[in-house]
Amino acid sequence: SPLFEGVNENAYVYFVHSYYVPVCSDTIATTNHILLYSASLHKENFYATQFHPEKSGEIGELIIKNFIEL
What is residue 56's DSSP assignment? Predict the structure, then answer.
């Protein structure tokens, strides 16, 4: 996904919540903590992240930059 352009596959981002979205056809990134689940989703013109890009340092900054440039 263009949202993750320049982000390494195993990059760390900041998660804080205990709820999750199962992996589905709209999943564009996953994480594995106890089980595999959606870290980010994309459908039509809608993007969502389970993690907090604003609290994820340089990687989060890059994701926000990519989002602005979509």
Answer: S
Judging by DSSP bridges, how do beta strands 35-43 and 27-33 pair with one another? antiparallel
pLDDT tens column, 34-67? 999 999 999 999 999 999 999 999 999 999 999 9
Tokens (6 digits) for 69 = 């440039």
Q: pTM here?
A: 0.89
Q: How many residues does the chain have?
A: 70
Q: Where do the DSSP E strands lie in the chain? A: 27-33, 35-43, 46-49
User: What is the Cα Rg of the chain in Å?
Assistant: 11
Q: Give the whole-angstrom CA distance, residue 70 versus residue 66.
A: 6
Residue 20 falls in which region: left (phi positive, over 0), alpha (psi -120 to 50) or beta = beta
* DSSP state for residue 52 in the 8-state scheme: B
What tokens were used for 50?
């389970």
